[in-house]
Amino acid sequence: MGQWLFRLVFPFMPPSLTYWLQQATIALISALAYGLAFWLNDQFSEWVLFTQGVALMYLPAGVKLLALLLGGWPAALGLTAMLWGLSFAYWTQLDAWALLGCAAISIGTTWVMLTILMRAWRIGTDLTQLNFTRLLLLDALSSVTHGWLMNGYFAWLGVRDFDTLPAAAWGMALGDFVGSGLLLLALTMVLKFTRWGQLRANP
Predict the structure, then answer these.
(1) What's residue 82's pLDDT?
(2) What is the mean pLDDT of residues 69-91?
(3) What secondary structure, in 3-state letters, does 6-26 show?
(4) Which residues pair with 136 in a beta bridge?
(5) CA quadruple 108, 166, 132, 198: dihedral sign
(6) Of 62, 60, 110, which Cα lies nearest the Cα of 85?
(7) How far, rounded to the nearest angstrom, does the alpha carbon of residue 172 sit from its chain's CA centroid?
(8) CA–CA distance from 103 to each of 9, 80, 134, 184 (Å)?
(9) What is the SS3 assignment for 118?
(10) Which residues contact 173 (CB under 8 A, 6 or more apart)?
(11) 18: left (phi over 0), alpha (psi -120 to 50) or beta
(12) Rounded to an integer, what distance in angstroms lies between the CA atom of residue 98 and that of residue 63?
C-alpha cells in the first residue's frame, strides 16, 4: 500500500527509484500533511480547546488515520517524528523522552488498532473491503483507545489530574472522531465532485 501511495503522489516518478527512497518520501509526505493539519487546527483552538492537549475537533487525527491506512510503517515514522517535534511547543514541562513517549503512544495506538481490526475483518492491503461503515467504526474504536491511553500516560507523567482523566479521555476521543469525520467527509466530497466532473467531460 505504501508503494501505491507513492505512485499516487508522484505518478511520473521513474520506477527505478529505490525501495527506501519510496518509504522516505511516504514518511515525509505524511509528516508534512500532519503538520499542516495541526497548524490549521490550531487556528480554531479558541473554539475547540477543551484542556491542555485535548481539542474537541482534531483534524490531524484524520490525517493520521488515512496516512497509516495508505502508508503503513513509513507513514507511522513520519507522523511520530512530526508529532514529537510539535509537542515541544505545547508541553514545555516535559522532557524530550517523555514527549517521544507521547508521540509513540499516539501514533502507535492508532496503528495497532488499525492492524488488529483490519485482520479481524480480513481487509487486505488493497482496502477493497473497507467500506464507509467499517471506516467509521475503526475511527471510533481507535479514537476511544487513543483518548484513554494518551490521557492515562499524561496522568502517569503528572501533567493530568486523575480525577479529570475520564473527561479528558472522552474529550480527546470525541475530538479525534470529529476531526477524522470532517476530513473523511471533505475527501468524499472531493472524490464525488471529481467523478461528477469526469462524467460531464465524458458523457
Answers:
(1) 96
(2) 92
(3) HHHHCCCCCCCCCHHHHHHHH
(4) none
(5) negative
(6) 60
(7) 13
(8) 26, 5, 26, 23
(9) helix
(10) 143, 144, 146, 147, 148
(11) beta
(12) 23
pLDDT digits (tens, 9 = 90+) for 151-163: 999 999 999 999 9
What does the pLDDT look like over 16-75, one tens digit per residue?
A: 566 778 888 889 999 999 999 999 999 988 888 888 888 889 999 999 998 998 888 999
In the block, residue with C-alpha cell 471533505: 186
Contact (CB, 8 A) for 62 and 52: no
Cell of 170: 472522552
All cell numbers assigned to 90: 505545547
Cα(74)–Cα(67) distance, integer angstroms = 9
Distances (CA, A) of 72 to 100, 114, 153, 189: 19, 10, 24, 25
Closest CA relative to residue 169, chosen from 85, 24, 51, 33: 51
Q: What pTM value is reported for the model?
A: 0.82
All three cell numbers of 113, joined, read: 488498532
Q: Which amino acid, 28?
A: L
Question: For the segment 168-179, what is each residue's pLDDT rounded down to a tens digit?
Answer: 999 999 999 999
